[in-house]
Write a structure and sequence with these properties.
The complex is a heterodimer of chains A (229) and B (207).
Chain A (H helix, E strand, L loop, with lengths): L2 H8 L9 H7 L4 H13 L3 H6 L3 H9 L8 H11 L4 H6 L2 H15 L3 H7 L1 E11 L2 E11 L16 E13 L2 E4 L3 H19 L2 H6 L3 H4 L12
Chain B lengths: L2 H8 L9 H7 L4 H13 L3 H6 L3 H17 L4 H5 L14 H15 L2 H8 L1 E11 L2 E12 L2 E14 L2 E4 L3 H14 L4 H5 L13
Classes of the chains: A alpha+beta (229), B alpha+beta (207).
Chain lengths: 229, 207
């Protein structure tokens, strides 16, 4: 996995200590409280909880990104393994929240040290801008030390490396609370993941044995579909 | 050029409301007015104007990142093709603003559709967040079309005081784009071949 990919995930991380009461209150709370509760959930790799703070529209959009994988037989097999389904029909029965949860759990399992990095990442909200009464953008900075990431054959490569990013998180009103929308970067990440899986599945056997590592690893071709929160 | 590379540029496109008068007054104006002037310059592909509205730190960082491309290219083609230099050695003498201008000229020459897309795109400023007396973040909504597909996203651009003027820092998209560009133009290192992530070892961005 490339750091760019990791960065997209780490953008969710938060340092602010959370408590069960904060999470419980978040549903009736401010956009900041919901955002903090979401990131706190990601820090403990509680992806079901994290998904509960996402807007249903975004979760549906997130799920839709993976549908094309079922067009290709091999990609469908990969998607099936990833999401625990055997067909597009079964996939259709799984909720967007479950898709999100399974994908993020899968990433955590594939990347040694990922959960530790998430746990140590900081998340500082700098301010917010209300575009409309129903739509708020939070400006935040995340810092993630990558020391715990274990790369094959290069264990110390990320020692003392810290990613710092300034990002925008958008929340949309949902009933009497706020829920996160899927960011264009996460959309791109999901699309990239789907593309890579499809490419890997479609590649001839000899390519999968000796293909240049860079080809599937570059996120530069990831589609960036329109985002309309 | 890669698609996200193009997208990264496009999100910098401007509101058509900005005028020539904005350019003149931008130096003494607010971060918002400098942002509008910057977006307008991007929209009209006026790279010299863009460079004049960018912070020295941003231009210096860009030149440093691209130096890895130029220096790694033993054929000297990158220096000649991208920066119109006679040799790699000349790169260090090239001004930081000129590096930006020539890079953007190169990009638009290899991706001519970008100018059309830039001209048709809009950026609407949604608001600002002051982080400190010398650092302001402008949040904006960018709408454009890339390869026929609508891209509608919220992004930010930071402005830092340079003397008494507000000047633009590199957006994270622009920074990512530059790093990717450098990565693609640079031969893979031994670390890369071992599976090093892109950007590993690069200093963190601290606006």
């Amino acid at each position: 996995m490339k750091a760019g990919f990791l960065t997209l995930i780490l953008a969710f991380a938060i340092a602010t200590p959370s408590s069960a009461s904060v999470i419980a209150q978040a549903e009736q709370d401010t956009p900041e409280a919901v955002a903090k509760a979401f990131v706190a959930a990601t820090q403990t790799a509680d992806w079901a909880k994290a998904a509960s703070f996402m807007h249903p529209d975004s979760l549906a959009q997130f799920k839709k990104l993976f549908e094309p994988m079922f067009v290709n037989e091999k990609a469908a097999k990969l998607a099936g393994e990833l999401f625990g389904v055997k067909s597009l029909a079964e996939f259709d029965q799984v909720s967007g929240a479950q898709i999100f949860e399974k994908l993020m759990s899968g990433i955590g399992g594939m990347m040694p040290g990922f959960n530790e990095v998430m746990g140590k990442a900081s998340f500082d909200i700098i301010g917010q801008i209300a575009e409309t009464p129903e739509l708020v953008h939070l400006l935040y900075r995340t810092r993630a030390p990558l020391d715990d990431m274990q790369l094959k054959d290069a264990a110390d490569l990320l020692k003392n490396v810290t990613i710092t990013k300034l990002e925008v998180m958008t929340l949309k009103r949902h009933g009497n609370t706020w829920r996160l929308t899927i960011s264009s970067e996460v959309e791109a990440m999901a699309q990239m993941f789907a593309n890579i899986s499809a490419l890997a599945a479609a590649a001839p056997a000899e390519e999968s044995k000796g293909a240049p590592r860079k080809a599937p690893a570059r996120p530069a071709n990831a589609r960036k579909p329109a985002r309309k929160p | 050029m890669k698609r996200t590379f193009l997208t990264s540029i496009l999100i910098l496109a401007a509101l058509s409301a900005a005028t020539g008068a904005d350019f003149a007054s931008a130096a003494q104006d607010t971060p918002e007015s400098v942002a509008k002037a910057y977006f307008a310059a991007m929209q009209s592909a006026d790279w010299a104007k863009c460079a004049s509205l960018m912070h020295h730190d941003a231009l210096a960082s860009m030149k440093s990142t691209l130096a890895t491309v130029v220096n790694a290219d033993k054929t000297g083609d990158a220096a000649k093709t991208i920066f119109k230099l006679k040799s790699v050695a000349e790169y260090s003498q090239l001004g930081e603003a000129a590096v930006f201008e020539r890079l953007m000229d190169f990009i638009t020459s290899v991706a001519p559709d970008m100018k059309t897309a830039l001209a048709a795109s809009t950026n609407t400023i949604l608001g600002r967040v002051d982080e400190g007396p010398d650092l302001v973040h402008i949040v904006f909504r960018s709408r454009t079309k890339v390869e026929g597909e609508e891209v509608n996203e919220v992004d930010l651009i930071s402005f830092k005081k340079q003397d008494s003027n507000w000047r633009a820092l590199l957006t994270s998209d622009m920074e990512d784009m530059l790093n990717r560009f450098a990565e693609e133009m640079t031969p893979p290192s031994k670390e890369d071949e071992k599976g090093a992530p892109a950007g590993a070892g690069r200093p963190p961005r601290k606006p």
